Amino acid sequence: MTETVSGPSRGGSRAKGPGRGRGKGAARGLTIQRLYTTPGVHPYDEVSWERRDVSQQNWQTGETVFEQKGVEFPEFWSLNASTIVTTKYFRGALGTDAREWSLKQLIDRVVKTYRSAGEEHGYFSTPDDAEIFEHELTWMLLHQVFSFNSPVWFNVGTASKQQVSACFILSVDDSMESILNWYAEEGMIFKGGSGAGLNLSRIRSSKELLSSGGTASGPVSFMRGADASAGTIKSGGATRRAAKMVVLDVDHPDVEEFIETKAREEHKIRALRDAGFEVDLGGKDIVSVQYQNANNSVRVSDEFMRAVEQNEKFGLRARMTGEVIDTVDARDLFNKMAQAAWECADPGIQYDDTINDWHTNPETGRITASNPCSEYMSLDNSSCNLASLNLLKFLNPDGSFDGETFARAVELIITAMDISICFADFPTEKITETTRAYRQLGIGYANLGALLMASGFAYDSEAGRAMSAAITSLMTGAAYKRSAELAGVVGPYDGFARNAEAHARVMRKHAAANDALRTHSSLDGAVQKLATTYWQEGNKLGETNGWRNAQASLLAPTGTIGFMMDCDTTGIEPDFSLVKFKKLVGGGSMQIVNHTVPEALRKLGYTEETIEAVVEYIAQHGNVVDAPGLKPEHYAVFDCAAGQPRAIEPMGHVRMMAAVQPFLSGAISKTVNMPESATVEDIEEVYLEGWKLGLKALAVYRDNCKVGQPLSDGSSRKDSNEPEKEVVVEYRPTRRRLPKSRPSQTTSFTVGGAEGYVTAGSYPDNGLGEVFLKLGKQGSTLAGVMDAFSIAISIALQYGVPLETYVEKFTNMRFEPAGMTDDPDVRMAQSVVDYIFRRLALDHLPFETRSALGIYTAAERTQQLKTGEYAPVDDDTAFEVESYRQSVPMRESSAATQEEERSAESDTATAAAAKPAPADAHTSAELLEAIQGTSTDAPLCMTCGTKMRPAGSCYVCEGCGSTSGCS
C-alpha cells in the first residue's frame, strides 16, 4: 500500500538534480513518493462517513449559539472535533447553499489551493507528483496526522484574502506617525483573527526631552491607546479575540513603570471589587481596567542577568544617544519583575542574547520581539504560518516511535507550508516584503504529553526529556533538509545571500546540540540516530543549495487545531488531568479516564485486572495515589499539569522546555504554572534557571493571582443599601455519652506487616460513639500515642463531630507502616490511620455517604465492573458478584488484542470507568473540580460560557474551540 524507505536520503519527496534557483542547471521539481496513500484509491474512499447534527449552547444562559444539521464527517472523528471544525472552519452563511457541510469540502478547499499554487510555481516534477502530493496531504488531514494553523482553514480557498499566518511581529519608531501607524496595523491584524507583538524600546522614555523642549510621554502612555483599541476589536471580532505582546528592553529608563503597570491595575481591580463593582472576567466594569489585552515581557540581556547574579548596579540608557541616564540595583529590579509576576502573572521574560545567538539573519537585523504567545521570534514586520503534527499517530504498537514516517511527513508538510507563502496575502506591505524575502515557517507538534505517558515515561524525567528532545531534533532536521532541497528547486530565500554564513552557523549549532544529546533507552536512541543522519545530509545539501526558509520550527499552543486532531494534550504541555469530559453523539456527556492511561499501564507491565482497578480508582479520585496494585515508583508517569495530590513541579516544566529548545528555530509557547503558595523567590528562581538553561522566553502563572477570574453568580452578594444588624448567638456543643452497655465490634488487621486491633463502640441507635486502637507493645510510645488519639476521637464523636469528617481528613494520610493489608475491602493502605478510617467508613457510614467519598466494598467494586454502576450489595448479591469476578478469565495480551484495545471507546478498563458526567461539568477543567473539589484557575469562554484550560501561553475552550491567543 505504501512505498517504504530506509533512511532520510529516500524521504517523502526529493529534488531531482543539483542547482539553485530557476536558472541554468536548476532542478525541475520535486518527485513525491507515496507515504500513506494507495495508487488508484482516493483517501476519501478508504473511510466510512456519517451525517451528524451539530448544536452548541451557552451553558450560562442556555441559549443555542450555533446549529447546523447533517454535516458529514468520518465515523472515527469525535463529536467534539466535528463540532469545532463545523463551528470554526466551515465557510458560508448558515442556511444557504454556499455553506460548507462536509469535511471533504473543507479539506479540498485548502489542499487543492496548495496543489495549484505548487504547480504554478514549479514545485513538482510532473502532474503525477502534484496529485500524489494532494492525496498525501488529504490523507494526513483526514486521519488527523497534522493540521495547519487556524487562518489557513479560515481563509484559504475562499473569496477572502488568503491570509495563512497566525503570528505577526510589528515595529514602532520614536515618532507620532509611526506610533499611530502601529495602532492601525495592529487593528487590521486583530480584525483578521490573528495576533501581533512588538518592542516599544525605540520610543523615548518619560525621562528624556523632545526636540521641542518638552518631556516625552514614554512608551507606557502609548500602550493605553493600543490597549483600548485591542479591547474594542476583541469585543466585535467574529472569529477570535485579539491577542498581543508588548516587549520592553531591560535597559529602557521606563522599565520599572512597565514592570509595575499590570500589577497596579490588579490593585485597582481589587479596590473596585471591594466597592461592589463587577470586575470578574466578562463583568461590565472590567472595561475600565487598562492594559488587560496584552501580554507584557521584559527583554533581558546576559549583562543584566550577570549583574543580578553578582548583585551589581545596572545602567538604564537613553533611547536617542545610548548614554546611561540612570543606574539601578539589578537584583532589586529583578525582584520587582518577580513581584509583579507573582501578583498578576506579568511581565514574562525574554532572553535577548540567547534569542539572537540562534538568529539566522543577523545581517538583516536583530530579533527584538515575539508574537503574543512567544513562540515566533524573528525580524520586525514579519509573519509566520504554523502547522502541528499529532505525535501519537507515530506511536507503533510495540511502543516505539516511527521516526522514519514522522520525518517523511514533516517533509511533505514543510513543502506545503512553503508553497502557501507564494499565494498568501499579508496585512501590510512591510510584512509582505519581509515574509516573502525570508519565508519563515513554524512546524511543531501536539500530544507530546500523551505520547510520553503512553510510552511509560514521566514528563518530568530524564528519559521523558531525552525522548522529547530527540523527536524535536528529528522534526527540525527533516524540515531544514527539505528546505535545502527546495532551495535547489525554487531557490533559497531572498535574504539568504547576505546571511549565508550566519545561517550555516546556526545549522551547525543545531547539529552539535543533537550530537550532544544524551539518550536513555533504545527508543529515543533510535530517533536521535535518525536525526543525526538528517542533520548531516541536510547541512551538506545546504552548503550547496542554501536554504529556502530562514526559520522552520517552533512549538505553538495548538489550542483549536489540537481539538481538531482529537489530541489529549496541546503543544509541549503535559496532560491536563487524567479524567476527561467527553461529548456523545446524540446528546449527553460522559466522564472517562484518559485512554493513554491503560496504554501506559500495559507498557509498564501491569496485568489487565490491575489496569481495570487502577482506571476505576482514577475515575473516582482523579489521581493515581493509592490506586490498588500501582507501584509508587510509577506515580510520576501519570503526573499532570493540574490536580491533587500530585502535579508536575514548576521546574519540571522549565526542564522540559530546556530539553527541546536547542532544536527549535523559534521558541516555545508555554506558561509555567505555579501553586498559589509559590513565593516571589520561587519565581525569581524560575526566571534565573530559564536563563541558565538556555531558554528564549518564559512566563509564569501563580494560581488565583488574578481577581478577574470566573466567579459564582452574584445572588449571594449583600445589598450595599441594606443596614447591618449585629446579632450575637452563642453555640455550645453538648456531649452525648454512651450507655454502660453498648454494642461494639473488634477488627484485627495487618498493614504493611504491622498487626493491630480496632474496637468500635456504638450507640444503641447504631451511631459510632467510641474508637479504641491497639498497636504496639503496652507501655511503648506508639501505644501511648494511639491511646491518646483514640480518646480524642471518641470524645469528639460524642460531642457530635460526624464520622465522615474524620474519614475525609484521615484517609490518604501517608506514613509508615503502609502497603498491603489483609482486608479484602481495603487492599492497600497509605498508613494505619488511612486503613482504620476506611474500615470505619465501610462499617458505620451509609452507602450514599461513603460513595461520595469514593469508598466501596470489594463486592460493590466488582458489581460495578459487571453492571456499570455502584449500588448497595447485600450478602447474597455479594456472593454472586464475587463468584462472577472469579469466573472471569484473565485476558491474554496478544498483539491483536493490544491493537484492538488501543481505542479508548473499546478499551475495557476505560469503559468500566466511564459514567455520566456531573450535570455542572462541561469541560475537563470543570470535571476535575467536581471530582477533587479544588478550583481550576482559568477564565470562562466568551462564546459558550464553559471553563477553559491552559494551552501554552493561552487558554482554550474544550466546548467550542475558542482560544484566548493567536494560534
From TrEMBL:
Keyword set, alphabetical order: Cobalamin, Cobalt, Disulfide bond, DNA synthesis, Nucleotide-binding, Oxidoreductase
SUPFAM superfamilies attached to this UniProt entry: PFL-like glycyl radical enzymes
Record flagged with keyword Cell division: no
All copies of domain Ribonucleotide reductase large subunit C-terminal, residue ranges: 165-701
E.C. numbers: 1.17.4.1
Superkingdom of origin organism: Bacteria
Record field: compositional bias (Low complexity): 1-16, 906-922
Swiss-Prot/TrEMBL catalytic activity: a 2'-deoxyribonucleoside 5'-diphosphate + [thioredoxin]-disulfide + H2O = a ribonucleoside 5'-diphosphate + [thioredoxin]-dithiol
Occurrences of domain Ribonucleotide reductase class II vitamin B12-dependent N-terminal (ranges): 52-144
Keyword S-adenosyl-L-methionine attributed: no
Gene Ontology terms: biological process: DNA biosynthetic process
Ranges where the record places region Disordered: 1-29, 884-922
Primary enzyme class: oxidoreductase
One Pfam family hit: TSCPD
Cofactor section: adenosylcob(III)alamin
MF term (GO), any: cobalamin binding
Sequence similarity: Belongs to the ribonucleoside diphosphate reductase class-2 family.
Chain's role: Catalyzes the reduction of ribonucleotides to deoxyribonucleotides. May function to provide a pool of deoxyribonucleotide precursors for DNA repair during oxygen limitation and/or for immediate growth after restoration of oxygen.
Protein's UniProt name: Vitamin B12-dependent ribonucleotide reductase
Species, as recorded: Phytoactinopolyspora halotolerans
Lineage: Bacteria, Bacillati, Actinomycetota, Actinomycetes, Jiangellales
